Amino acid sequence: MSISTQSTDGRWSSRWLFVLAAAGSAVGLGNIWKFPYIAGENGGGAFVLIYLVCVAFVGAPIMISEVMLGRKGRASPINTMRKLTQEAGAGARWTFLGWMGVLAGVLILSYYAVIAGWALNYIWLTASGTFDAASAQVAITTFDQLQQDPLEMMGWHSAFMVITIWIVARGVSRGLEAAIRWFMPLLFVLLLVLLGYSISSGGFAQGWAFMFDFNWSVVGPETWLIAMGQAFFTLSLGMGTMMAYGAYVPGDSHIGSTVLTIVALDTFVAVAAGLAIFPLVFVNGLEVGQGPGLMFVTLPLAFGQLPMGALFGTVFFVLVSFAAITSAISLTEPAIAYVVEEYNAKRSRVAISLGIFCWLLGLGTVFSFNIWADLKPLFGLNFFELVDQLSQNIMLPLGGLLIALFAVWVLPQSIAREQLQVTSKRVMFCWRVVGGVMAPLGVAAVFVYTFLPFFIG
Ligand code: PFF
Asked: Would you say the CB of residue 331 lies under 6 angstroms from ligand 1?
């Protein structure tokens, strides 16, 4: 086994490109599809405030830990953990963190590509006028028909996977950077266009009130836990993605401020997506709390009722697809970086093999909506639900918890101080309290909440 001190596959050409890449990983279906529907289901403003608290006190410190470990290790998450545990004189068992991240990435990519495939399909559907002046029934039937047709879903799922793997195969500078350089600015422009559209739709005041008026009566302990889980997924934490990207960060960039920029961008996109979506929902008298269908049923319907709706609807789904691609790329990085550096393998070959494997695994998710819908092998969950729950609710929180604990309590303090460029004792103390105590406790709460029902029945 070789543990290199240089990342095998290059460096980001600037700190700013790392910010764009990490923001590209963070901003995805989690922000545009999930965040609005979860906020809708959980009372709007109250949820948004709690989510922001979780992002600031749990998400940001864990991201700092991941990037710090990655830059120090300068290798794939597995080898970074190997190297740092040796350096810290800690047990080799910590390396398990890297392996779990690789597995989580593979599992998440397998279903992420399926849902992102729906978004690709919706570019075509909105552009071809399917929803122009359509009734609610048309919107519902269109979504149902897609889910009931495994071949159609496989087609879109395959298309998404091919695009992702094609970019990944080209490597950090020719693939990732080139894609991110284009996608991210475009995404922000599209989002602003949509915001403008939504502001002029007539429902903006209502949408704004829904997002920012705090109604404490709807807040329960569960709201905190849902917000915490969402903060985690949306910031791409717990599986080594930020560690893998951190390995390519230039040595002189300031990790704290870089991470805060990434977190701010991710939060901006989630809030802006909410502000773009809710006014359209209100202006059409539709249901805000209807769950995952918000993006695939309510929104096309809302666009269909508005002037130039087909155009803006198409723009919206293009935006979602871009966001999903830059996230999907990052899901593969921990696995690909490891195989490339460990076996000196060709990146394109590794990328294609991983793509084929994830694609095959994704068929389980495709079939979970139709021919396998009733197949519930464990805990009354179908294949898609199992993979989703296992990766998002178990592997990511566990990974995040351990990463924060490792970064603060196992890694020698001198390394942390050097990486974070902190000289003040007081700042270091605050970092240890937030990163080593508050953040792990927050994640542990989500974890207990997820597991407790299994133990107490
Ligand atoms: N953060 C992405 C989203 O919000 O859609 C999902 C994700 C990407 C999670 C990469 C984890 C990850 F490593």
From this structure: yes
Q: What separation in Å is there between the alpha carbon of 132 and the centre of ligand 1?
A: 32
Q: How far apart are CA 70 and CA 245, in angstroms?
A: 7
Q: Are 310 and 303 in contact (CB under 8 A)?
A: yes
* 419 DSSP 8-state letter: H
Ligand 1 neighbourhood includes 29 CB (under 6 angstroms): yes
CATH superfamily, domain 15-456, is Amino acid/polyamine transporter I (1.20.1740.10)
Distance CA(108)–CA(339), nearest Å, equals 19
Atom of ligand 1 nearest to the CA of 327: 8
Q: How far is the CA of 26 from the centre of ligand 1 (A)?
A: 5
Name which of 53, 50, 33, 52 is nearest 215 in CA terms.
50
Q: How confident is the model at residue 248 (pLDDT cuts 50, 70, 90)?
A: confident
| 396 touches 230 (CB < 8 A) | no
Query: Virtual CA dihedral for 127, 132, 138, 141, nearest 10 degrees?
Result: 10
Rounded to the nearest angstrom, the distance between the alpha carbon of 284 and the centre of ligand 1 is 31
Residues 94-115 have pLDDT tens digits of: 999 999 999 999 999 999 999 9
Write the CA distances from 283 to 128, 254, 302, 386, integer angstroms: 23, 44, 8, 37
Ligand 1 atom, smallest distance to 235 CA: 1
Supply the DSSP string of 271-311, one letter for each residue: HHHHHHHHHHHHHTT--TT-TTHIIIIIHHHHHHHSTTHHH
- SS3 (DSSP) at 203: coil
- Give the C-alpha distances (Å, rounded to integers) separating 70 from 57, 211, 421: 21, 36, 15
- Average pLDDT estimate for 369-373: 92
Task: Report which ligand 1 atom has the smallest distance to the Cα of 241.
Answer: 13
Ligand 1 contacts CB of residue 230 (under 6 A): no
Q: Which of 234, 243, 393, 398 to mutate to test the pocket of ligand 1 (most atoms within 8 A of CB)?
A: 234
Cα-based distances in Å from 195 to 41, 204, 273, 383, 456: 22, 9, 8, 36, 46
Q: Please, is 100 exposed, middle or buried when counting C-beta atoms within 10 Å of its C-beta (0-12, 13-18, 19+)?
A: buried
Global confidence as pTM: 0.89
Distance CA 9, CA 20 (A): 18
pLDDT of 457 reads 61
Atom of ligand 1 nearest to the CA of 33: 5
Q: Which of 37, 51, 66, 108 to mutate to test the pocket of ligand 1 (most atoms within 8 A of CB)?
A: 108
CB 20 within 8 A of CB 325: no
**What does the domain layout of the chain look like in residue ranges?**
15-456
* DSSP-assigned beta bridge partners for residue 381: 378
